[in-house]
Amino acid sequence: MVELSGQRLEASAGEIEQAEQRLGFLLLPQFSMMAFFSAVEPLRIANRIAGRALYDWTLIGLGGGPVTASNGMTLLVDHPMEDVRNLPWLAVCSGFDPELWIGHGLSAWLNRLDQGGCCIGALDTGAVVLAEAGLLRGHTVTLHWETLPTFNERYPSIRTCDELFLLEERRFFCAGGAAAMDMTLEMIARRHGMALAVDVSEQLIHDRLRSRTDQQRMSLVRRLGTHQPRLVDAVALMESHLETPLPLAEIARRSRVSSRQLQRLFADVLGTSPSAYYLSLRLKRAAQLLKDTDLDVLAIGLSCGFGSASSFSRAFRRAFGTAPQAYRHHG
Protein backbone atom coordinates (compact mmCIF):
# COMPACT_ATOMS: atom_id res chain seq x y z
CA MET A 1 0.00 0.00 0.00
CA VAL A 2 1.27 3.47 -0.89
CA GLU A 3 0.14 6.42 1.22
CA LEU A 4 0.77 9.89 -0.17
CA SER A 5 -0.03 12.68 2.27
CA GLY A 6 -0.12 16.37 1.45
CA GLN A 7 -1.85 19.73 1.74
CA ARG A 8 -5.06 21.19 0.37
CA LEU A 9 -5.19 22.56 -3.17
CA GLU A 10 -5.79 26.17 -2.16
CA ALA A 11 -3.97 28.28 0.41
CA SER A 12 -4.19 31.81 1.71
CA ALA A 13 -1.78 34.44 0.45
CA GLY A 14 0.21 34.33 3.66
CA GLU A 15 0.95 30.62 3.44
CA ILE A 16 3.87 30.95 1.03
CA GLU A 17 6.27 28.66 2.88
CA GLN A 18 4.52 25.30 2.90
CA ALA A 19 5.34 21.64 3.02
CA GLU A 20 5.89 19.76 -0.20
CA GLN A 21 2.63 19.00 -1.98
CA ARG A 22 2.14 15.43 -3.21
CA LEU A 23 0.25 14.97 -6.45
CA GLY A 24 -0.96 11.94 -8.36
CA PHE A 25 -1.57 11.61 -12.09
CA LEU A 26 -3.67 8.65 -13.23
CA LEU A 27 -2.63 7.87 -16.81
CA LEU A 28 -5.31 6.03 -18.76
CA PRO A 29 -4.43 4.37 -22.10
CA GLN A 30 -4.45 6.86 -24.98
CA PHE A 31 -4.13 9.80 -22.56
CA SER A 32 -3.23 13.24 -23.89
CA MET A 33 0.52 13.67 -23.56
CA MET A 34 0.19 17.39 -24.31
CA ALA A 35 -2.19 17.95 -21.39
CA PHE A 36 -0.08 15.82 -19.03
CA PHE A 37 3.21 17.55 -19.83
CA SER A 38 1.51 20.97 -19.68
CA ALA A 39 0.41 20.16 -16.12
CA VAL A 40 3.70 18.66 -14.90
CA GLU A 41 6.34 20.95 -16.41
CA PRO A 42 5.28 24.07 -14.45
CA LEU A 43 5.63 22.03 -11.25
CA ARG A 44 9.15 20.96 -12.18
CA ILE A 45 10.16 24.53 -13.02
CA ALA A 46 8.61 25.85 -9.80
CA ASN A 47 10.79 23.42 -7.82
CA ARG A 48 13.90 24.54 -9.71
CA ILE A 49 13.22 28.26 -9.24
CA ALA A 50 12.39 27.83 -5.56
CA GLY A 51 15.51 25.75 -4.96
CA ARG A 52 13.53 23.15 -3.04
CA ALA A 53 10.78 20.58 -3.61
CA LEU A 54 7.50 22.49 -3.55
CA TYR A 55 5.79 19.68 -5.45
CA ASP A 56 6.29 15.97 -5.83
CA TRP A 57 4.24 13.77 -8.14
CA THR A 58 3.65 10.14 -8.81
CA LEU A 59 2.37 8.41 -11.95
CA ILE A 60 -0.40 5.84 -11.52
CA GLY A 61 -1.75 3.28 -13.98
CA LEU A 62 -4.64 0.85 -14.05
CA GLY A 63 -1.97 -1.79 -13.67
CA GLY A 64 1.75 -1.62 -13.09
CA GLY A 65 2.82 -1.72 -16.74
CA PRO A 66 3.70 1.13 -19.10
CA VAL A 67 0.92 3.32 -20.50
CA THR A 68 0.83 4.47 -24.11
CA ALA A 69 -0.41 7.98 -24.89
CA SER A 70 -2.48 8.99 -27.90
CA ASN A 71 0.69 10.11 -29.69
CA GLY A 72 2.22 6.63 -29.39
CA MET A 73 4.75 7.54 -26.69
CA THR A 74 4.89 5.28 -23.63
CA LEU A 75 5.49 6.20 -19.99
CA LEU A 76 6.30 3.96 -17.05
CA VAL A 77 4.11 4.43 -13.99
CA ASP A 78 5.25 4.42 -10.37
CA HIS A 79 2.32 2.50 -8.91
CA PRO A 80 -0.65 0.43 -10.01
CA MET A 81 -3.97 1.95 -9.02
CA GLU A 82 -4.86 -0.62 -6.37
CA ASP A 83 -1.65 0.07 -4.42
CA VAL A 84 -2.40 3.77 -3.89
CA ARG A 85 -4.40 4.94 -0.87
CA ASN A 86 -4.88 8.25 0.98
CA LEU A 87 -3.87 10.38 -1.99
CA PRO A 88 -4.45 14.12 -1.33
CA TRP A 89 -4.68 15.26 -4.97
CA LEU A 90 -5.35 13.31 -8.18
CA ALA A 91 -5.67 14.30 -11.83
CA VAL A 92 -7.31 11.80 -14.18
CA CYS A 93 -5.49 12.05 -17.51
CA SER A 94 -7.26 10.56 -20.50
CA GLY A 95 -7.76 11.11 -24.20
CA PHE A 96 -9.75 9.15 -26.71
CA ASP A 97 -12.57 6.85 -25.53
CA PRO A 98 -12.09 7.32 -21.76
CA GLU A 99 -15.26 5.34 -21.01
CA LEU A 100 -13.48 2.15 -22.14
CA TRP A 101 -11.59 1.98 -18.85
CA ILE A 102 -14.47 2.44 -16.42
CA GLY A 103 -14.93 -1.28 -15.81
CA HIS A 104 -11.45 -1.88 -14.36
CA GLY A 105 -12.39 -1.12 -10.73
CA LEU A 106 -11.68 2.52 -11.48
CA SER A 107 -14.98 4.00 -10.27
CA ALA A 108 -14.76 2.20 -6.92
CA TRP A 109 -11.15 3.33 -6.46
CA LEU A 110 -11.99 6.94 -7.26
CA ASN A 111 -14.91 6.89 -4.83
CA ARG A 112 -12.68 5.51 -2.06
CA LEU A 113 -10.21 8.34 -2.64
CA ASP A 114 -13.03 10.88 -2.64
CA GLN A 115 -14.38 9.55 0.65
CA GLY A 116 -10.87 9.88 2.08
CA GLY A 117 -10.80 13.59 1.28
CA CYS A 118 -8.83 13.52 -1.98
CA CYS A 119 -9.15 16.52 -4.29
CA ILE A 120 -9.99 14.81 -7.60
CA GLY A 121 -9.99 16.45 -11.01
CA ALA A 122 -9.52 15.85 -14.68
CA LEU A 123 -7.44 16.89 -17.64
CA ASP A 124 -9.34 16.99 -20.93
CA THR A 125 -11.74 14.01 -21.23
CA GLY A 126 -10.97 12.74 -17.71
CA ALA A 127 -14.22 14.44 -16.71
CA VAL A 128 -16.06 11.58 -18.46
CA VAL A 129 -14.44 9.12 -16.04
CA LEU A 130 -15.51 11.22 -13.05
CA ALA A 131 -19.05 11.48 -14.42
CA GLU A 132 -19.26 7.70 -14.81
CA ALA A 133 -17.99 7.33 -11.23
CA GLY A 134 -20.79 9.59 -9.96
CA LEU A 135 -18.37 12.23 -8.66
CA LEU A 136 -19.70 15.30 -10.46
CA ARG A 137 -23.04 15.86 -8.74
CA GLY A 138 -23.31 19.50 -7.76
CA HIS A 139 -20.15 20.48 -9.64
CA THR A 140 -19.63 22.50 -12.80
CA VAL A 141 -17.32 20.94 -15.39
CA THR A 142 -15.25 22.27 -18.26
CA LEU A 143 -13.82 20.19 -21.10
CA HIS A 144 -12.24 20.68 -24.49
CA TRP A 145 -14.61 22.67 -26.72
CA GLU A 146 -14.90 19.78 -29.19
CA THR A 147 -15.94 17.36 -26.43
CA LEU A 148 -18.45 19.62 -24.66
CA PRO A 149 -21.44 18.94 -26.97
CA THR A 150 -20.96 15.18 -26.62
CA PHE A 151 -20.63 15.45 -22.83
CA ASN A 152 -23.78 17.57 -22.60
CA GLU A 153 -25.75 15.03 -24.61
CA ARG A 154 -24.50 12.12 -22.49
CA TYR A 155 -24.78 13.79 -19.07
CA PRO A 156 -27.55 16.42 -19.32
CA SER A 157 -27.85 16.78 -15.53
CA ILE A 158 -24.22 17.90 -15.08
CA ARG A 159 -23.53 21.61 -15.41
CA THR A 160 -20.81 22.55 -17.92
CA CYS A 161 -19.06 25.67 -19.12
CA ASP A 162 -16.47 26.45 -21.78
CA GLU A 163 -13.86 28.09 -19.53
CA LEU A 164 -10.19 27.15 -19.75
CA PHE A 165 -10.13 25.61 -16.29
CA LEU A 166 -12.01 25.44 -13.00
CA LEU A 167 -10.42 25.13 -9.56
CA GLU A 168 -12.55 24.20 -6.56
CA GLU A 169 -11.57 22.91 -3.13
CA ARG A 170 -12.43 19.28 -3.96
CA ARG A 171 -12.62 19.33 -7.78
CA PHE A 172 -10.69 20.80 -10.68
CA PHE A 173 -11.01 20.58 -14.45
CA CYS A 174 -9.25 21.92 -17.50
CA ALA A 175 -9.98 21.90 -21.21
CA GLY A 176 -6.81 19.97 -21.98
CA GLY A 177 -3.82 20.95 -24.10
CA ALA A 178 -2.20 24.21 -23.07
CA ALA A 179 -5.09 24.93 -20.67
CA ALA A 180 -3.48 22.43 -18.27
CA MET A 181 -0.50 24.79 -18.07
CA ASP A 182 -2.75 27.74 -17.26
CA MET A 183 -4.48 25.74 -14.54
CA THR A 184 -1.19 24.66 -12.97
CA LEU A 185 0.15 28.21 -13.05
CA GLU A 186 -2.99 29.35 -11.22
CA MET A 187 -2.44 26.61 -8.64
CA ILE A 188 1.14 27.77 -8.13
CA ALA A 189 0.00 31.38 -7.74
CA ARG A 190 -2.59 30.44 -5.13
CA ARG A 191 -0.21 28.32 -3.11
CA HIS A 192 3.13 30.09 -3.49
CA GLY A 193 2.34 33.57 -4.78
CA MET A 194 1.92 35.33 -8.11
CA ALA A 195 5.62 36.20 -8.44
CA LEU A 196 6.61 32.53 -8.65
CA ALA A 197 3.82 31.81 -11.13
CA VAL A 198 5.03 34.64 -13.36
CA ASP A 199 8.63 33.37 -13.18
CA VAL A 200 7.50 29.87 -14.15
CA SER A 201 5.40 31.26 -17.00
CA GLU A 202 8.35 33.19 -18.37
CA GLN A 203 10.56 30.09 -18.24
CA LEU A 204 7.93 28.33 -20.36
CA ILE A 205 7.92 31.23 -22.86
CA HIS A 206 4.25 31.59 -21.95
CA ASP A 207 3.67 35.27 -22.53
CA ARG A 208 0.84 35.80 -20.07
CA LEU A 209 -1.11 34.12 -17.30
CA ARG A 210 -4.45 33.32 -18.89
CA SER A 211 -7.44 33.45 -16.57
CA ARG A 212 -10.01 30.69 -16.46
CA THR A 213 -12.45 32.87 -18.42
CA ASP A 214 -10.16 33.27 -21.43
CA GLN A 215 -11.58 31.69 -24.56
CA GLN A 216 -10.66 28.12 -25.45
CA ARG A 217 -10.90 28.71 -29.18
CA MET A 218 -9.42 31.37 -31.41
CA SER A 219 -11.77 34.26 -31.91
CA LEU A 220 -14.10 33.98 -34.87
CA VAL A 221 -12.23 36.86 -36.47
CA ARG A 222 -9.07 34.75 -36.56
CA ARG A 223 -10.80 31.48 -37.44
CA LEU A 224 -12.70 33.03 -40.32
CA GLY A 225 -9.78 35.19 -41.41
CA THR A 226 -11.93 38.30 -41.65
CA HIS A 227 -12.77 41.43 -39.69
CA GLN A 228 -16.21 41.73 -41.27
CA PRO A 229 -18.31 42.23 -38.12
CA ARG A 230 -21.62 41.31 -39.77
CA LEU A 231 -20.23 38.00 -41.03
CA VAL A 232 -18.69 37.21 -37.64
CA ASP A 233 -22.03 37.93 -35.96
CA ALA A 234 -23.84 35.65 -38.42
CA VAL A 235 -21.48 32.73 -37.88
CA ALA A 236 -21.64 33.17 -34.10
CA LEU A 237 -25.44 32.93 -34.30
CA MET A 238 -25.18 29.77 -36.38
CA GLU A 239 -22.74 28.13 -33.96
CA SER A 240 -25.01 28.86 -31.00
CA HIS A 241 -28.18 27.58 -32.71
CA LEU A 242 -27.38 24.14 -34.07
CA GLU A 243 -30.16 22.16 -32.40
CA THR A 244 -32.88 24.61 -33.44
CA PRO A 245 -31.53 26.37 -36.54
CA LEU A 246 -32.53 29.97 -37.05
CA PRO A 247 -34.07 30.98 -40.38
CA LEU A 248 -31.51 32.76 -42.54
CA ALA A 249 -33.76 35.84 -42.62
CA GLU A 250 -33.57 35.96 -38.81
CA ILE A 251 -29.78 35.56 -38.87
CA ALA A 252 -29.58 38.44 -41.36
CA ARG A 253 -31.84 40.60 -39.19
CA ARG A 254 -29.84 39.94 -36.01
CA SER A 255 -26.61 40.58 -37.91
CA ARG A 256 -27.99 43.91 -39.13
CA VAL A 257 -27.77 43.13 -42.87
CA SER A 258 -30.26 42.26 -45.56
CA SER A 259 -30.63 38.67 -46.75
CA ARG A 260 -28.97 39.63 -50.04
CA GLN A 261 -26.03 41.23 -48.22
CA LEU A 262 -25.66 38.11 -46.07
CA GLN A 263 -25.48 35.93 -49.18
CA ARG A 264 -22.83 38.23 -50.67
CA LEU A 265 -20.73 38.28 -47.48
CA PHE A 266 -20.56 34.48 -47.30
CA ALA A 267 -19.80 34.16 -51.01
CA ASP A 268 -17.07 36.85 -51.03
CA VAL A 269 -15.29 35.88 -47.80
CA LEU A 270 -15.98 32.16 -47.27
CA GLY A 271 -16.71 31.05 -50.82
CA THR A 272 -20.00 29.42 -49.93
CA SER A 273 -23.63 30.27 -49.18
CA PRO A 274 -25.03 30.88 -45.69
CA SER A 275 -27.26 27.81 -45.95
CA ALA A 276 -24.39 25.53 -47.01
CA TYR A 277 -22.13 26.87 -44.26
CA TYR A 278 -24.86 26.43 -41.62
CA LEU A 279 -25.54 22.87 -42.82
CA SER A 280 -21.84 22.01 -42.64
CA LEU A 281 -21.70 23.17 -39.00
CA ARG A 282 -24.65 20.97 -38.08
CA LEU A 283 -23.24 17.94 -39.91
CA LYS A 284 -19.83 18.34 -38.27
CA ARG A 285 -21.55 18.32 -34.88
CA ALA A 286 -23.48 15.20 -35.91
CA ALA A 287 -20.30 13.43 -37.00
CA GLN A 288 -18.72 14.21 -33.63
CA LEU A 289 -21.72 12.80 -31.77
CA LEU A 290 -21.71 9.67 -33.91
CA LYS A 291 -18.08 9.02 -33.01
CA ASP A 292 -18.26 9.91 -29.33
CA THR A 293 -21.70 8.76 -28.13
CA ASP A 294 -24.04 5.80 -28.45
CA LEU A 295 -27.10 7.99 -29.09
CA ASP A 296 -29.29 6.60 -31.85
CA VAL A 297 -29.22 8.21 -35.27
CA LEU A 298 -32.60 9.91 -34.88
CA ALA A 299 -31.62 11.51 -31.56
CA ILE A 300 -28.42 12.82 -33.10
CA GLY A 301 -30.27 14.14 -36.12
CA LEU A 302 -32.79 15.94 -33.93
CA SER A 303 -30.05 17.42 -31.75
CA CYS A 304 -28.42 18.87 -34.88
CA GLY A 305 -31.57 20.46 -36.27
CA PHE A 306 -32.93 17.77 -38.61
CA GLY A 307 -36.63 17.00 -38.52
CA SER A 308 -36.39 13.28 -39.28
CA ALA A 309 -33.94 10.41 -39.53
CA SER A 310 -34.38 10.29 -43.31
CA SER A 311 -33.57 13.98 -43.86
CA PHE A 312 -30.56 13.65 -41.61
CA SER A 313 -29.32 10.51 -43.38
CA ARG A 314 -29.68 12.10 -46.83
CA ALA A 315 -27.76 15.23 -45.83
CA PHE A 316 -25.09 13.21 -44.03
CA ARG A 317 -24.57 10.86 -46.96
CA ARG A 318 -24.17 13.79 -49.36
CA ALA A 319 -21.55 15.39 -47.10
CA PHE A 320 -19.57 12.31 -45.99
CA GLY A 321 -20.30 9.75 -48.70
CA THR A 322 -21.69 7.22 -46.25
CA ALA A 323 -24.70 6.68 -44.01
CA PRO A 324 -24.54 7.87 -40.37
CA GLN A 325 -24.57 4.33 -39.00
CA ALA A 326 -21.71 3.24 -41.26
CA TYR A 327 -19.75 6.37 -40.33
CA ARG A 328 -20.16 5.50 -36.65
CA HIS A 329 -18.49 2.12 -37.19
CA HIS A 330 -15.86 3.08 -39.76
CA GLY A 331 -15.52 6.87 -39.68
Characterize the structure shown:
- The chain has 331 residues and is an alpha/beta fold.
- The protein is 44% helix and 14% strand.
- It has 14 helices and 13 strands.
- The chain has helices at 33-50, 106-115, 126-132, 148-154, 179-192, 194-203, 220-224, 229-239, 248-254, 259-270, 274-292, 297-303, 309-320, 324-330, and strands spanning 2-3, 21-27, 55-61, 67-68, 74-75, 79-80, 84-85, 89-93, 119-123, 140-142, 159-161, 165-167, 171-174.
- It has a seven-stranded mixed beta sheet, sandwiched between helices. Strands 1-7 form a two-stranded parallel ribbon. A two-stranded antiparallel sheet has the order 4-5.
- 37% of the residues are buried.
- Residues 5-16 have low confidence and may be disordered.
Element layout with pairings:
Elements: E1 2-3, E2 21-27, H1 33-50, E3 55-61, E4 67-68, E5 74-75, E6 79-80, E7 84-85, E8 89-93, H2 106-115, E9 119-123, H3 126-132, E10 140-142, H4 148-154, E11 159-161, E12 165-167, E13 171-174, H5 179-192, H6 194-203, H7 220-224, H8 229-239, H9 248-254, H10 259-270, H11 274-292, H12 297-303, H13 309-320, H14 324-330
Parallel strand pairs: 1-7, 2-3, 2-8, 3-6, 8-9, 9-13, 10-11
Antiparallel strand pairs: 4-5, 12-13
